[in-house]
């Protein structure tokens, strides 16, 4: 089958993605209650009991809200680096020691033929990471919650078949929005969130002929619109990387899942 994935839901209120190679199903973050996770999976005809492991990007609530309950219910191993585990231990309740797996930043875990590699990103969390998934020659990168796209991150995600990439906010909408300036400054800072413009600029540096789809993720419900994110990113890509005509910019949703994207399909 190759590798496929679905963004179960993404936004400021919750995030979760499933990656499946036909033998192993890995869940990236559990930002919703266990019940909500089950409903989102059901939309994609996926049984929650079929999940084999969870990898965690960082400890903020929109990424771990249901982590403890879901992992306990289905007896699942959780992979995170040591600093993230220090925060998780205070937030998600008791996890069986056998299911507490330390995956250091930059480390690799293999689930059969599915290879998962983490890499450090810049965000106001203990030790946040993104992930690259490999199945044969196929590559999927999941990178959200970062204040800026460093050269090291660009190097990690270059040559992906598909990406789940943060397009959190429109800078002008954020600046005139209702948030206190202290929160705006955090979001706009190097350890905050990636804007539509920054995502578009970064994308031009990592696109190759191999890249077919980019899922615009983690949109702010207050300071962004999906149509605006798509228009902004597309205009930058068309100006700076016009040869990327095969690229598809895909929506994600705060209240429902995306269709399965099968990376080996034509």
As a percent range, the share of helical residues equals 25-40%
Describe the sheet with the most strands: 7 strands, mixed
Strand content: 15-25%
How many helices?
9
How is the largest sheet built, in terms of strand order? 6-5-4-3-2-1-14
The global form is globular
Q: Any idea what the radius of gyration is?
A: 17 Å
Quickly give the structural class. alpha/beta
Total number of beta strands: 14
Overall mean pLDDT stands at: 96
Cα distance, first to last residue? 13 Å
What is the succession of H and E elements?
Answer: EEEHEHHEHEEEEEHEHHHEHEE
Quaternary class: single chain
Pick out the low-confidence regions. Answer: none
Catalytic activity: 3',5'-cyclic UMP + H2O = UMP + H(+); 3',5'-cyclic CMP + H2O = CMP + H(+)
Protein name: MBL fold hydrolase
GO molecular function, one term: hydrolase activity
Organism: Paenibacillus marchantiophytorum
Please describe the structure with a list of short key phrases separated by commas or semicolons.
seven-stranded mixed sheet, alpha/beta, 266 residues, 9 helices, 29% helix
Word description of this protein:
The structure is a single chain. The protein is an alpha/beta fold. Helix content is 29%, strand content 24%. It has helices at residues 34-43, 61-64, 67-74, 82-91, 151-157, 171-175, 181-188, 196-206, 226-240, and strands at 4-9, 16-20, 25-28, 53-55, 78-80, 100-102, 108-111, 114-120, 129-135, 138-143, 162-166, 213-217, 248-250, 261-262. Strands 6-5-4-3-2-1-14 form a 7-stranded mixed β-sheet. Strands 7-8-9-10-11-12-13 form a 7-stranded mixed β-sheet. A hairpin with a 4-residue loop joins strand 2 and strand 3. Helix 8 runs parallel beside helix 9. The relative contact order is 0.16. The model has no long low-confidence stretch (mean pLDDT 96).
């Amino acid at each position: 089958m190759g590798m496929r994935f679905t963004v179960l839901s993404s936004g400021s209120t919750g995030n979760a993605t499933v990656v499946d190679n036909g033998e192993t199903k890995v869940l990236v973050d559990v930002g919703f209650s266990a019940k909500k996770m089950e409903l989102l999976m059901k939309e994609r005809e996926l049984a929650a009991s079929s999940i084999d492991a969870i990898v965690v990007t960082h400890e903020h609530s929109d990424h771990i809200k249901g982590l403890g309950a879901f992992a306990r219910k289905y007896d699942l191993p959780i992979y995170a680096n040591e600093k993230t585990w220090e925060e998780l231990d205070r937030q998600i309740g008791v996890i069986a020691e056998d299911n507490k797996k330390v995956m250091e930043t930059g480390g690799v875990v293999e689930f059969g033929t599915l290879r998962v590699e983490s890499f450090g990103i810049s965000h106001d969390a203990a030790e946040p990471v993104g992930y690259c998934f490999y199945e044969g020659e196929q590559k999927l990168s999941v990178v959200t919650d970062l204040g800026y796209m460093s050269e090291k991150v660009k190097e990690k995600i270059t040559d992906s078949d598909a990406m789940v990439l943060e397009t959190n906010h429109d800078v002008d909408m954020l600046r005139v929005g209702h948030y206190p300036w202290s929160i705006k400054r955090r979001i706009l800072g190097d350890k905050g969130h990636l804007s539509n413009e920054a995502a578009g600029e970064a994308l031009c540096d990592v696109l190759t002929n191999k890249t077919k789809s980019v899922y615009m993720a983690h949109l702010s419900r207050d300071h962004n619109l999906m149509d605006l994110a798509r228009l902004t990113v597309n205009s930058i890509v068309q100006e700076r990387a016009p040869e990327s005509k095969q690229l598809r910019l895909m929506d994600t949703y705060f209240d429902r899942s995306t269709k399965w994207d099968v990376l080996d399909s034509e």
